[in-house]
Amino acid sequence: MAERDTTRYELRDGNKVVYVGITNNPDRRAQEHTADKDFTRMVTVGPKVSRATAERWEEQRIDTYKQNHHGERPKYNQNDTGK
């Protein structure tokens, strides 16, 4: 069974999702984001999961966001490939 070591998260500006991501080190990742992104909070989504599960979630979450926002990706996911 794959190790459950990956955190799924969203960066929000107020209630608006501005980034969807995954990491195995949330504290470090929050510090990295603070340097180059404007957001008011980092929200953890569910318990830790395997990397493969987290990658599927990230792709699905971005797709859902696009469906609800006229095909647009979250503000800071613009240059990502979805993984």
The secondary structure category is: alpha+beta
Strand content: 15-25%
The chain-level mean pLDDT equals 94
Number of domains: 1
Helical residues, percent: 25-40%
Which H/E pattern describes the elements? EEHEH
Overall geometric form = globular
Describe the protein's architecture and organization.
By secondary structure, the chain is α+β, with helices and mostly antiparallel strands. The protein has one domain. Helix content is 35%, strand content 23%. The chain has two helices and three strands, in the order ββαβα. The two termini are 22 Å apart. The model has no long low-confidence stretch (mean pLDDT 94).
Task: Please tag this protein with its features.
83 residues, alpha+beta, 3-stranded antiparallel β-sheet, globular
Write the layout of secondary structure elements.
Layout: E1 7-13, E2 16-23, H1 26-36, E3 41-44, H2 51-68
Antiparallel strand pairs: 1-2, 1-3
Summarize the structure.
This protein has about 80 residues and is α+β, with helices and mostly antiparallel strands.
